[in-house]
Specification:
heterotetramer; A alpha/beta (402); B mainly alpha (272); C alpha+beta (359); D mainly alpha (540); A: alpha/beta; D: 540 residues; mainly alpha; 3 domains
Chain lengths: 402, 272, 359, 540
Amino acid sequence: MRGRRIAWALGVCACSAATPPAVPDPPRTELTVWHSYRGDERLAFLATVSAYDATRPDLDVVLVAVPHDALPDKLGVAIPRGNGPDVFVFAHDRVGDWAQRSYLEPLGFLTDAALAERFYDETLSPLVYRGDLYGLPLAFKCLALYYDRTLVTEPARTTDALIAQTTALRARDPAVWGLGYEVDSLYFHQPFLDGFGGALYSDERDTLAFDSNEAAASLDFVRGLLVDHKVIPNEATSALVSSLFLKHSLAYVVSGPWFRAELAGHEGWGVAPLPIVSATGRPSRPFLGVEGLMLNRYSKHKTAAFELMTALTTDDAAFVRSQTGGQLVANRQVYLRSEVRDDPFAQVFRAQLGHSVALSNRPHMRRMWTPLKDALSRAIVHGEDPAAALRLARTRVEEGAP
Amino acid sequence: MRLRDLVVHAGLVATSLLTLFPALWVVSMAFRPSQSFDTSLLPIPEVISLDNFRDLFSRPHFFRQLGNSLLVAGLTTAIGVMFSCTAAYAFSRFRFPGRRAGLLALLVTQMFPGTLMLIPLYALIESLGLLNRSAGLVLVYSTTAIPFCVWNLKGYFDTLPRELEESAMMDGAGPFVVFWRIVLPLSRPAIAVTALFSFLTAWNEFILAATFLSEEQAYTLPVTVQSFVGAFSTEWGHFAAGALVVSLPVMAVFFALQRHLVGGLTAGGVKG
Amino acid sequence: MPQLELDAVGKTYDDGFVAVSDVSLAVAKGEFIVLVGPSGCGKTTTLRMIAGLEDVTKGQLHIGGRKVNDVPARDRDVAMVFQSYALYPHMTVRENLSFGLMLRKLPTAEVVKRVDEVAATLELTTLLDRRPKALSGGQRQRVAMGRAIVKRAGLFLFDEPLSNLDAKLRHQMRVELARLHRTLGATSVYVTHDQVEAMTLADRMVLMNAGRVQQMGAPLDLYERPANLFVATFLGSPSMNLLPADRDGEDFVFEGLRWRLPSQTSAPREVVLGVRPEALRVVGTTPSGREATLQLPALVEVVEPLGHETYVHCRIGARPLVARLTGPVSVMPGESIVLGVEASAVHVFDRQTESRCSP
Amino acid sequence: MKNVAALGPCLAVIFATAFGAMVVDRYASHRALENGQAFALHLAAYLAQEGDVAIAQEGDVAIAQLRAHPAVQSAALVKVVAADARYPFLRRLEVVAHTDPSRVGTRLLASSEDDKRVADLVHIGGVTALSDRRFQAGVGSAVVTSMPITRVGLPVFGLAIGALAALLFWLDLVRKQPTSRVRPLIGALLCVGTLFTLLGWRIVAIDRLEGAARSTADPIAATFLLAVVVLLPLVGTGVLGSMRGVGPSPHRRAYAYVAPALVGLSLLVVLPFLFGVALAFTSEVDGQTTFVGLDHFIHILSSTGRRLTEPLSFYFTAAVTIAWTGINVALHLAIGLALALVLSDPLLRFRGLYRVILIVPWAVPSYITALVWKGMFNQQYGLINHLLLKFGLEPVAWFSGFFTAFVANVTTNTWLGFPFMMVTALGALQSIPKDLYEAARIDGASAWQQFRHVTLPLLRPALIPAVLLGTVWTFNMFNVIYLVSGGAPNHATDILVTEAYRWAFEQDRYGYAAAYSVLIFLLLLVWGLFAQRLTRADES
């Protein structure tokens, strides 16, 4: 199945490679697109770009794969000097920073409602900063609950059920663990933070609110999972979690769509929405990240570039990305097509999309990760007082404010 | 074999194993069909497959990129060693105003953490018109390698007996002949070490390469290898295969250079 | 026209240290000059200035009538043998010998001819394809010498060439050097701190100290008529006995003794009397009345019999004194003896200026 | 002659400093202009009593201004029309009033290029809603506050510094004293001048980004860069010359040998470095760079309100860094040297094979091997704890305690770092003639005594560079800490450079990180000066 998809995508690439570029007239516009897609996602993206390129003889689209870690810095040095790409793909959480530095062209005046309707509202709004739209969404990423069918017949709907199931499993076989994720990562902790009623900010002005009682309760809860119920393995890195899961030694994994790539060839797993927090009755909402196509503010071919962006976000293109690339695309119509409708994986994540909290795209957000990682590590791993740990993180975040 | 040799070999084998052991995980990951990080207790793949290498080699421009890497590292080595040799010779042999300051300056360049150098370096390379060209990378790499190269060669030159050069001067050799026919042949071990260092500096670097190069066919190999690292997950199988492919030429270069690390090159030249 | 001429040549280093000051010297063709002096006296610096390895900071330097102050070493037509030999370790003996000739673009046949010739002279023929590290110390020394000879330079410079050899080999090489010089007749400047080498090899000897020439002349002249205290003590082993004395008319008073030296009436009041150890002899156990000999009552402390001669270390009051006596002698430590010396063998130096007063 | 020769660099310094200061000033007033605009718009919004309205609703009107320097040349009154109720960020705008009357009534549609241009014009100023009634007031204040402010302070200041440096320099030369006390002062002034130059240079770069949309060629920037490129060697010769007179020197050959390396370095290392230093005095908020003086340094050195012995205080981190450096370099040196000694034995069999195996840690990219080590230290599934269990010992939670986490870091870094030292030592060992060992053996020296009295002293000059630079590198070794312990527990194992990195790339505070880097640099510089005294002994 997967092999066929790749073969198809490769075919498209081969066709596009075969089209001779040696016609000097009419003057061709060259559009550069930077992305950091890998594997199947890359092939799918390549395929959609090539397909569009083939319909536009006046256009040359040059795709450049840039290592993910190097991409923001590269943009940061290239765009201000007029060397940036016309269009690039990145997650939405830097939009605010880049908009402020005027790297990004606002799209609000170029986009119409018909175009906007293609996408789930949840995937569009993270790309809006101070009232302007700065990108067209390609795909979204959020966390869901993977489970091992050989260990769990029915995935837990609530945290209580999850604890009950996993402690039972542990009692039966101590080599089996209940739940795996990086407990000291804010990204992974967010579902519980939210489920317990906590939040990072109390309002739109980045007023810090994570040192609340609710947040402390969520830390206590995870500490309980780790220490009292012992359902989470110690020092669970993503590498360890996936290797345990692959050995059927782990019942549940909190992870995102990327985890599926690591499960290639592995049988007996399923995905479910994240459980409801029993203590509050609230669903645990993970962070939502949206990959958007963004337009360089200094692009010399903004019109052509925007046309390309529009073409890459059509339902058909999104369908290719969904099928070949395994992406969770942002287009609502795609989820109605039979291939996707019948794919529980896509549907579970689509459902989770409705219960998610978009990562803030304001620059301030980037200061949260490390201090909160410390707080989580202090409270959950080392058993320090959660409230104190969170307060400490708050000082660190405030200190980071210039 | 004598007992002492046995002990020495036993020690060396043990050290070699300790050295190789962590690297075996990389080998194991490279030859596993999976893309997840190998956290098993021992680096032994359950299934051996060449998929990762096949994927790697079939990447667009792979061999072009390998060529780029070789070109960049080769040129960096050549240029770095050449300029370092002359500079180190001057620092070792001539007493000129600014000599100590120059030496200190070379050392000082290594002291500022490189993390903040990206923006100005980019602007410089751009203003020289060398963005997206191997020449730009060669320029940056060779200058970053130069401080160590100069210091290392200077240290070695300092140990070379000066009478040999004076003797050559008396024999009618000009400064260049002295440098070329006497100093350089005698410095082969240090030059070999310096060359290896320059080569490695250029060979494994990817941050600057990824920033300066904006076409995939212009990339160096480490950039491609680093592309396997994503925001949330990494294709470890591909990465490991890439890491192995990247490290093989280094070993080959070292193997070629190490015969220059022969003993007692200056022996018999001077006494006392 | 002298082959080599130094005219008030001086060397001051960048840090202000004066290594050599005002050395003037003319070396005739074929002459063998030895620069001698303690380490750090500036003799090697002088040699290196002649060679062109150090800049001359003062004065003028002429080789073969040409001013060479600013001529680089390679164009000075000089050859040099280094203390450490400085053989090129990465070249064979043959390459070592022919390197300089090749650089001068001599025809290959000529190079081969000269190298073979020199190798034959120095008995190196069988060693021509070896590397220096496969040679013994003496062989290396000969290669170094050969490298200088093969150039047929107008001026030979030697920088303590024998100092790395053991005593026996050194003697052997010294003789060989002297023989070589006689056959080649090359103008040579030779630096050493070994006075035996200096005395035996030199046509003329230049004794230096603290960057200055102390005395210059035939070796025996220097020995017999030292110009100052430094020369007097540097040459001769054991070195000259020095006795501070005050002049009182024709008498010189020291350590309660009174010597009459009528020929020294022009000497200043405060002098130092110098007596070579070999000028002393034992005249008895108690002072005798003989006028011709100056007498020194002394207490024997150590006796060193060497076979052909004996060193007797003794003491006059608090002052040590060495006598070098021919053949075995029968004095014992603790004994009181009287040493005698001829008045003509007493050197008189001005205690202030340290220069010689006696004619 | 000397004095004339010295004038060149002096003039260059004056010119460059003044020029740099001028650009800084122009930039500052330019920024002031922008601030003025923003302020005017906010003021207008305030007057309209609509608060800080970010999203324009249908029927709202906005001021749009062309951000063209040096002054605001046009302003437009734009009406927001046909905003889709579901998508408030999608807008169509109509120009209601414009300083260029021909543009009144233009509809802003994405489809036509012309409208695109106007749309450009709209965003640059930002869109802020305000009512018709207050339009005049808004435009008025916008224009008033954004008048270019002519200030002469900075260029004059720059000129004065340059002139003072030149004057002192000249006086110094005229007096012909071998050593001079004013020289450090000249140096300091030259530094300030260069700093200005670079600040100006950076601003030109930023300026270009603003011009980039309109034109790619920027003659000012090109000229200026040229000036800098020409200037640095001049300043260099000036500084060199000031040490011991100017003019033709017997050292030309030495300079010729050194020049290629030093010119390359001064261009590619010194320039960026000075840029970093300049950055340390600035702070960037919302894309606006401001000069903050010594604030960052004071903040860091006051240990950010923490106790000195607490992780994250500068002093604690510095102490950890020093320990980290010392231990690592000692281990690298000991292991590298020991292996090199064994492997330099020409009679050893498989010598080449061992050598190649032992450089594997250096050859394989450290990104992956560092993570392998992290995996080996895993509490539950790591090999090391597994072995501990096998030997009947308690498994260790390596990254929970400072000491164990530190050990894990050091182990990894030792593994990564010894091959470099080994290879360098192998090279250095070749300069020791073997007959010295023979001599020592004849003298009855034991193996250890031979090592202690023959090998070590002779290796010293050749090994010092590796140790010196190895120390600097280890001090700034960021990878291992970041990948293995990640600073755990609670930043205790962080070293200075990881802290700088966090400020730069996790908190986006480049200015603060630059200040951190400058402090790192100063620490190392003190060490370097000290170390240079050590090498001096080896040379004479």
